[in-house]
Amino acid sequence: MRMSVGLHARQSQVQKLAPRMIQSMEILQMHALALQERIEQEMNENPLLEQLSGDPLSPDDGDDDSPSKDIRSEDEKELVVDNDHDNKDDFERLLNMDSELPSTFDDSFRRSANRMSEEADRRHDMMANAQSRPESLNDFLLHQLAELDIDDDVEQIAERIISTLNASDGGYLRTPIADMLPPGHSKEDLAQAEEALRIVQSLEPTGIAARDLSECLILQLDPSLPHFEKLQTLIKHHLNDLAENRLPQISKKTNFTIEEIQELREDLHLLNPKPGAAFMETYVPNVTPDIILEVDEDGEYRVRLDDDRVPNLFISEYYRKRLQASDCSAEEREFIKQKISGAQWLIDSIEQRRSTLTKVAEAIVEHQKRFLDEGPEAIEPLKMQQIADKVGVHVTTVSRAVDDKWIQTPRGILPLRRFFVGGTQTDDGEDVAWDTIRLKLQDLIDKEDKSKPYSDEALVDELRGAGMTVARRTVTKYRKKMGIPSSRKRRDWSLT
């Protein structure tokens, strides 16, 4: 093989995104609260950015003489992006905005020291009134352990056992007792560790520190129960058969009747297989809708962007006039030009976000009117490409516009992505959303004969009879996603 070194010319097309274009896409993807934080950051970094009086971030309420929110003129030229030149047209346009913006430089647009102090006080109050962190599983067990009068060595091992328990794992003991002892431990040490484990297992919640499911359930059994021994038998030897609904096999091995096994199973359902899970910290996000969907007097839906928290920005006239001043040095002029360019890009990106998000939301609402009127069973199949074609943007723009955005509707607050669903076609060629098929599937299973429940093949036939052609593997997939067990597990043996 011959190798050589040389210079070669090659022509190729490479698509590159300018940093400003990336910024514009990032702002489109932000929800209102994130955008508000971004604007606060930009205002701290760019002294040329000002906000209209009366905006959420402004210290003053403003008056009737303040500029309107829409400060962009109808014949305003689109910002020209030209990294190779001085963007002369843009700066001339910015310098001629006197008629649209405040006539004098007003320091009141900046937050005063008193306002910043008030905001700090409000944030302090919010933190003080915030809900305190709930007690963890380990702390709850340690507090109980401290109240017991036990040997110090046993207590130390018990504390070691408690430290290994995890609420997300249900509070099970996954580490062998012997591994918690030092190497070369004696039989007495192991017996002491077993005693420590029994003490931990006697604490609340009942069933904690069990080594497996059987031990967890047995720890929760009350010896005074009338069927205590039979429940123990089922737990120790037939848990798998119970899970698979193989009641006849259990009956054959234990001589329990089917009815008796079902009653015992109901008692077992009252036990908690994951006693430590109650101490898991659940995160509930604070959802703030970016879009409000209202119904007007004619019964038509109207989309309104809820961006009251997003201030209307403009470029400081002081710096625009400073740019024209005769004593403005070249270094200062270059600094102002850079900041003006960054500020205008931010303003245009926010306006573009408002326009795109509104158009996308209107197109979604128009397509999903039946869903909004009638409920989930009437949702229509919808792909992002359909909305992109209707709005006239790229599909990735739609994806960014709906990402992490919520809409307040008469049916509650919903994520915008909820309106995008796949589907199939009926025998008549009508599009049907997968959500509709899932609802039909649930309805069939709810109404089936439990003595002979539908198999997945039978469900396919039933759906076909309703005009929905679906593959068996699809039925199986959605049945599992919906948490519906197989036909064998759904069978009620007492009816046979």
Question: Could you explain the architecture of this structure?
Answer:
A four-stranded mixed sheet has the order 3-2-5-6, covered by helices on one side. A two-stranded antiparallel ribbon has the order 1-4. The chain is of the alpha+beta class. Residues 56-87 and 97-113 have low confidence and may be disordered. The chain is flat and about 100 Å long. Among the domains are: 137-279, no CATH class; 291-309 and 352-421, Arc Repressor Mutant, subunit A (Orthogonal Bundle), CATH 1.10.10; 424-495, Arc Repressor Mutant, subunit A (Orthogonal Bundle), CATH 1.10.10. The relative contact order is 0.10. The protein has helices at residues 19-29, 32-45, 88-95, 113-129, 137-146, 152-164, 187-201, 213-220, 228-237, 239-243, 247-254, 258-268, 317-324, 330-367, 369-374, 384-391, 395-402, 434-447, 456-465, 472-481, 487-490; strands spanning 49-51, 291-295, 301-305, 313-315, 406-409, 412-415, 423-425, 431-433. Residues 66-86 have a biased composition (Basic and acidic residues). One of its GO terms (biological process) is DNA-templated transcription initiation. GO terms for molecular function: DNA binding; DNA-binding transcription activator activity; nucleotidyltransferase activity; sigma factor activity.
